[in-house]
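Can anyone check this?
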Amino acid sequence: MNTQKIVFNKLFKEEKVELATQKVELGSINIIKDAISNLKDIEKSATKVADKFENKISEAYKSWQSLNQERNAIYTWVNNEAPARISDFEKAAKELGVDSSSVSEIKELKKLIQIGKQLVKALDDYKRPTTG
C-alpha cells in the first residue's frame, strides 16, 4: 500500500506541476496578447494624431503661401510701382511749375510706402511651415 501511495502522490504532484506550468503559459500569453492590443491601439491613435498634424501643416502652408503672395504684392508696390508713380508725377508737376511736396496725395502715398516697407519686414518674419 505504501508503494501505491507513493506512486499516487508522485503522479498527483506531477499533474499539479504540469497544471501550474499551463497556468503560467496561459497567463504569459494573455499578457503578450494584452501588449499586442495596447500597441495596436497606440499605433492607431498615433497615426490619427500624425495625420491631423500633417493636415494642419498643409493648411498652415497654404495660408503662408497666401500671406507670402500679399507680402510680394506690397513689396512690389512700395519698392517699384508707387515710387515710379511719384517720380512721374513729380516730373510732370515740375514741368508745370508745381511743387509736388505740397500735394496731399503725394504726402499720403509716401507715408503709405513707409508703412508698407515696415509691413514687408514684419511679414518676412513668418517662416514657411514644414514638418521636418
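Reply from J.R.: I decoded it. The chain has a mean pLDDT of 86.
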